[in-house]
From TrEMBL:
TM stretches of this protein: 55-78, 84-105, 178-202
Organism this protein belongs to: Naematelia encephala
Alphabetized PANTHER family for the sequence: DUF1275 DOMAIN-CONTAINING PROTEIN
UniProt entry keywords in alphabetical sequence: Membrane, Transmembrane, Transmembrane helix
Protein name: DUF1275 domain protein
Taxonomy of the source species: Eukaryota, Fungi, Dikarya, Basidiomycota, Agaricomycotina
């Protein structure tokens, strides 16, 4: 059951960014976290091949990169799997999400146009998405990416265990990929059905609260730790959410021996 926590922490962001991207694409034709689409939009706009303004994709990409850079580097310093760091990151995301919801609510009350408040709302959603995706990237589950769907599709259909029943063979990697794809589709469909940006924020916030609960309930790891030189050394109990990467390194060392 130890492998459950990294995959569960990654599946929650999968629901969040697929749902958020569906809603923001409907409202602004821009993605909050899928920066592949925003990068393509900016490239097309830069060559004058599109009549669409590059403002929103540019704001989204800039906010995502800056916040992701800050939290990605700080996470590496404090420990990506430290319980306190994960809770702090989730709290920051919830605060930014709440601010985005307030802006949407006030703009609806004052009948402000999306041109006036849209870029601020998109910036805030991208700022909360940066830490979210960098956290998922470092969750320690190799089978689950963070934003692209091409890799999960390719990995799943080329998995040698795709047609296996699971008896006498380890199919956990296949199951994680399949569940990731299903959860991503579920989030995208829910987002496409939501017409309110406020409701999107509430649902995404709820997913973050659930993820925070998983972090709180996760048992701290006891035993080996990764040293500064990449080697495995003995250690005491750490207040960390289980890191699948540590056990991957251990397995590779055992095979090499």
């Amino acid at each position: 059951m130890q492998w459950f926590f990294p995959s569960s922490l990654s599946r929650s962001p999968a629901r969040e960014y697929s749902l958020a991207d569906s809603v923001t694409y409907k409202a602004y034709q821009t993605f909050a976290t899928s920066q592949t689409g925003n990068t393509v939009s900016l490239a097309v706009a830069a060559l004058g091949s599109s009549s669409k303004s590059p403002l929103l994709p540019g704001v989204s990409l800039a906010g995502f990169v800056v916040s992701g850079l800050i939290f990605g580097q700080l996470g590496g310093y404090f420990g990506h799997h430290r319980r306190g760091w994960l809770l702090l990151s989730f709290t920051f995301q919830l605060v930014i999400l709440a601010a985005a919801s307030l802006i949407v609510a006030k703009s609806n009350q004052s009948h402000s146009s999306q041109k006036t408040t849209g870029w601020v709302h998109m910036l805030l959603l991208a700022v909360q998405g940066g830490p979210q995706v960098t956290m998922a990237t470092n969750a320690g589950c190799r089978e689950i990416p963070t934003a692209m769907m091409t890799t999960p599709y390719a990995a799943f259909i080329s998995d040698p265990t795709i047609f296996q029943s699971g008896q006498g063979i380890d199919v956990r990697a296949r199951n994680r990929r399949a569940l990731y794809i299903a959860v991503f589709w579920a989030g995208a469909l829910v987002g496409a059905a939501i017409s309110s940006l406020c409701w999107m924020s509430i649902i995404v916030g709820g997913c973050k609260v659930v993820a925070m609960g998983l972090v709180v309930l996760a048992k701290g790891e006891v035993g080996d730790q990764i040293g500064a030189d990449g080697g495995v050394k003995d250690g005491g109990e750490e207040d960390e959410v289980y890191s699948g990467f540590q056990h991957i390194v251990r397995d590779e060392r055992n095979v090499a021996m």
